[in-house]
């Protein structure tokens, strides 16, 4: 029976060190980590690998429920997948385990709170942007990747992986820029 740790943060400039250290202290081996949004399961290859290979009696350990997912349904779907394999989930803060029914109830409530918290953050962000726009202060976010360079490299025959490597960004950003430019030309 293995204790498998999973650490996740949403952006490349955030650190996973605290989560990983906490999982090590808890005796997790192996520990899988990734820097990707928790808004959906898309692109979360490390989590997918864990769910593919977890065995009966194994335990998936995360520091907080929102590291597993921001959507209640997604967290509960992961718990269901673990159940199907005879595995368990343990959340360290607050300490909750799916080994018992009361843990499942608490986990459902935690998932709902995480989802509600995410909605509040987005709402406050929208309100702040609207207030800044009304004052003429909002100029939008700064672009991190030079769109023109992406399109020029694509025109030269470079693939998304090569473009991403050359510009120091993710392939997903390159795909988004290419898709966005293609949509502009179709309009």
Automatic annotation (TrEMBL):
Residues 2-136 form the Resolvase/invertase-type recombinase catalytic domain. It holds the Pfam family HTH_23. Signal peptide: none annotated. CDD domains: SR_ResInv (cd03768). Belongs to the site-specific recombinase resolvase family. This is Transposon gamma-delta resolvase. It comes from Methylorubrum suomiense.
């Amino acid at each position: 029976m293995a204790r498998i740790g999973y650490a996740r943060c949403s952006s490349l400039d955030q650190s996973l060190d605290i989560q990983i250290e906490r999982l090590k202290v808890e005796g997790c081996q192996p520990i899988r980590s990734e820097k990707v949004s928790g808004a959906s399961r898309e692109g979360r290859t490390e989590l997918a690998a864990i769910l593919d290979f977890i065995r009966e009696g194994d335990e998936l350990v995360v520091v907080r429920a929102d590291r597993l997912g921001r959507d209640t349904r997604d967290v509960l779907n992961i718990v269901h997948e673990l159940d199907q394999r005879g595995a368990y989930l343990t959340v360290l803060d607050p300490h909750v385990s799916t080994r018992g029914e009361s843990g499942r109830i608490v986990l459902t409530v935690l998932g709902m709170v995480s989802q509600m918290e995410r909605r509040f953050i987005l709402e406050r962000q929208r309100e702040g942007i609207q207030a800044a726009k009304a004052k003429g202060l909002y100029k939008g976010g700064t672009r991190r990747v030079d769109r023109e360079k992406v399109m020029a490299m694509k025109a030269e025959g470079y693939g998304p992986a090569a473009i991403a490597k050359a510009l120091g960004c993710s392939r997903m950003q390159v795909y988004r820029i290419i898709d966005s430019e293609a949509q502009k030309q179709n309009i």
